[in-house]
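Q: Structure tokens for this one, please.
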Amino acid sequence: MNGVRKSRWQDQWRSHANRPFMINVFQGVNVIRKNWVSSLLLVLILLFLVGCSPKQPVSTASSMLTPLEKALSSGTPTLAEFGRGTCIPCKEMEPVLDELASLYKDKLNVVIVSVDDYRDLTSRYGIMAIPTQIFFDSSGLETFRHIGFYPEIEIINQLKKMGIE
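A: Here is the predicted structure, written as tokens:
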């Protein structure tokens, strides 16, 4: 023993540490002590991920409705156009839709839905290409769908088929 006296605790610790069936409680502490850099990195990554998680905005039930859902619940027929601001045919549809909105002011809701802003609506209605125009009756059921640029004359004809004059 070379004059160095071991305590009883050290003897017990060594005897337990050498037994394979015993769980070494301090083994995790030793690993962390040896790999403190990787442990610190892991903690920082976890904190970053928690800090970057999207926060849910606090809102009331009325503000959670999308413009399309508000239009569909109004009881008037609705023309919804799904598009994107950078899409050329979508940009060409804007003046047509503005004209229709003013022409059928109290008879038709005209809603432009951005596929970037309302991805849940885009997937719910199965939009695969833009622009897509969907016609809804006064009860909110889809009656007709068109993909691509849709001339104003043809939209008016479709509205007449739906009974909107």
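A few notes: Residues 8-52 form one domain. The two ends are 107 Å apart (CA to CA).
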